[in-house]
Amino acid sequence: MASFNSQYDPEARHQADIPMAPAGQVSAQKFLSEDEEEGINLRDYIVKCLGAWRWFAASVIFFVGIGALYILSTPKLYTRMAEVMIKDEDSGQQNISAALSDLGIGQVQANVANELIAFQSPELIGKVVERLGLRTSYTVCPLLRDKTLYGDSLVVAASFPGMPRQKGMSMSVKLLGKGRARVSDIASGKDSYDGTLEVTLGDTVSTPLGSFVLTPGPSYETDYPYTIDICPRTLPEAIISYQKKYSADIPDEDATVIRFSMTDTDIPLVTDFLETLICIYKEEWKQDKEQMAVATSNSFSYKHLTLPT
Fold first, then answer.
1. How far apart, in whole angstroms, are the C-alpha atoms of residue 48 and residue 96?
2. pTM to 2 decimal places
3. Cα Rg of the chain, angstroms
4. Other CB atoms closer than 10 Å to residue 188's CB: what's the count?
5. pLDDT tens-digit profile of 129-155?
6. Angle 284-286-288 (CA atoms, 0-180°, nearest 5)?
């Protein structure tokens, strides 16, 4: 008689009682658990960010402040443009030049290029600087941005009697009212004067570095609130400074027009510079024509006198 040895396994019976789910349902449950885990991680991240909101607010305020400081401290630049057409005085010569240009002989272009070189010459720019008094700069700083004083906006003007034209004295001037001013930070080249002077406008003031005179400008105010920085430059330094701001070119290969542009922080200065540049060029051109006419006339007179009888 056979005997059977059997053992009772509760865990196996429990597993046997659990129904098996289809394969598709198992995959769906797995993806659902992963989505719930991702949702939980994103929610935790948002909670952490909200907990550090002070740092985010401080960062935004910091970078917005840096941007505002940059905008307030950057000077505003203005650009003016002008054009000059180069013409031959003789219409017949102009027609001949145009015909030569059509044949590929660049007579017209050569004339325009020569005039362009004349407009870009340091000598012409130096004459503009001297006529407008641009060797000495006047600036104030109302807030964070430097402002140039020129022309009608000039509060005081400085001159340096007895000093060479290539020298001057830089200084800071604070108006005190009643025709007086406080002058400090006086320097000339590598030399400096540490003292502070109270001067009367219009008087000649002597210092170990030289003499200077301060006179009221068109916008003089007895209670002007800002300190005026006066900085004279040598003529070569002023020419180089304005060469960087000024440009001239020929817009087209066959054009007879020269185009000028200048960029600076003061609109009247830019306008006066271009107008004076063209004015001095016309004056010199007219002077050259008159000298040429006189030389030609003298040449004809000489030939006439030496003709054999």
1. 83
2. 0.70
3. 41
4. 20
5. 999 999 999 999 887 888 899 999 999
6. 70
| Biggest alpha carbon–alpha carbon distance for the chain | 175
151 closest CA partner among 202, 201, 217, 212 = 217
Rounded mean pLDDT of 233-255? Answer: 89
Residue given tokens 């740092």 in the structure block: 55
Rounded Cα gap, residues 51 and 156, in angstroms: 58
Going through the chain in order, the beta strands assigned E by DSSP cover 78-85, 136-140, 147-149, 156-159, 170-177, 180-188, 191-193, 197-200, 204-207, 210-216, 228-232, 246-249, 257-264
CA nearest to 163, candidates 114, 124, 104, 207: 207
Please choose, from the candidates 236, 273, 264, 268, the residue with its C-alpha nearest in 3D space to the C-alpha of residue 146: 264
Cα(217)–Cα(238) distance, rounded to whole angstroms?
A: 22
Q: Which two tokens stand for residue 57?
A: 């607010």
